[in-house]
What does this fold into?
Amino acid sequence: MHAWLVIWMQWVADLGYAGVVLLMAMESSVLPVPSEVVVPPAAILAAHPEAAMSFWGVVAAGTVGSYAGSCVMYALALWAGRPFILRFGKWFFMPRQKVEKAELFMQRYSAPGIFFSRFLPVVRHLISIPAGLARVNFLTFSIATISGSAIWCAVLAWFGDKIGRNHPDILSSPENLIRAVKDETGLIVGGVLLLVVLYALMRWMTLGEDRETQSRERAD
It folds into this structure.
């Protein structure tokens, strides 16, 4: 894995925006590319005065890549169908257990789940599959994916810029970079999980009210 991390970080350094788009598209598909080794290094490089990239350019490139990869997975699920995904997904880093977890997340949280998933590990990579299987409206899918991806890329870029200023030599060690970003973004992920829990509670209460309303209507 260390060798792959070095290669991916080198792509960012050599290809600039194109490398960010490519790697984030891979990250939003089924390929195990951590966004923590894509956007933060790009933001660190962009902070240099002579850099060819800018902070917001990195955010935009990351968002475009995330959306492109998500669209590919959405279309694949829409075209292939659930039986195909569950049967052959394990050969493409989509084991049945992970797909079913993503489906459950999608069923519970619907369209907001697509937005929230952009901040959550594991679910972030797979949520486009159940969205495609459920035939979620493509415009709704696009808005939720783009907005969530843009915020997540901005967070990673901001932390990358911050970490780069505090640790100028951080790019020499992929493991230290990932550890530093994960430590910094832990509170963000925790906050998102809290929002998901609150949303789930609100939805549960709403469903309870709907059941009571339906019961009264039947009684009348």
